[in-house]
Write a structure and sequence with these properties.
Helices cover 21% and strands 29% of the residues. The protein is of the alpha+beta class.
Length: 180
């Protein structure tokens, strides 16, 4: 059971999310402290991500506290939210070894990777997939990083997903259009 100090009305959805994702809870508490309100500000965008979708019903929500980062998505099951582990990169593809496994024939086993650079933001790189990865309808050059912005449309072949960023994102806007 979580032992967070509540500062008023406790959002039951937030509390349930934290209980269901203990490793994420521990990371957030370690960085943000025991204040429930502060931890909840990082969880609420995750819970509201489906309602932000405008182009697709699929999303990837990137969350960062600056040092800690993780992803949530409904790509693997549109009826629930998958939470990745805390990491600096997440493999996306058809393989069950991927952080986000998309069981679709048009997706390569290791299709793309999303990375997080603490002072630059989130980026994506196509790993030489058979059918390509697109950001805002522009095909990515394989093995070249493209920084992502909140609201970007990512396409893994024909699978569309909206990319959202929450948490500490102020330093990410300067690097958002940079290609490496």
């Amino acid at each position: 059971m979580l032992n967070l100090k509540s500062s008023g009305q406790v959002d039951l959805r937030t509390h349930l999310f934290l209980e269901q994702n203990p490793s994420i809870s521990e990371s957030l508490i370690e960085e943000l402290g025991q204040n429930f309100s502060q931890v909840a500000t990082f969880i609420e965008p995750i819970l509201n991500a489906p309602s932000r979708c405008e182009i697709s019903s699929n999303y990837i929500q990137a969350v960062t506290t600056g040092r800690t980062a993780f992803l949530t998505t409904n790509l693997t099951n549109s009826q629930s939210t998958q939470v990745t582990g805390v990491a600096s990169s997440w493999l996306i593809g058809r393989s069950s070894n991927c952080a986000i496994a998309i069981l679709e024939k048009s997706i390569s086993r290791c299709h793309a990777v999303i990375g997080h650079h603490p002072h630059e933001g989130f980026c994506i790189m196509d790993l030489g997939s058979s059918n390509g990865t697109y950001v805002n309808r522009s095909k990515l050059v394989p093995l070249q990083q493209r920084f992502l912005k909140d609201g970007d449309l990512i396409e893994f072949n024909k699978i569309r997903t909206e990319f959202f960023i929450s948490g500490c994102v102020a330093s990410q806007s300067a690097a958002s259009d940079t290609h490496y």
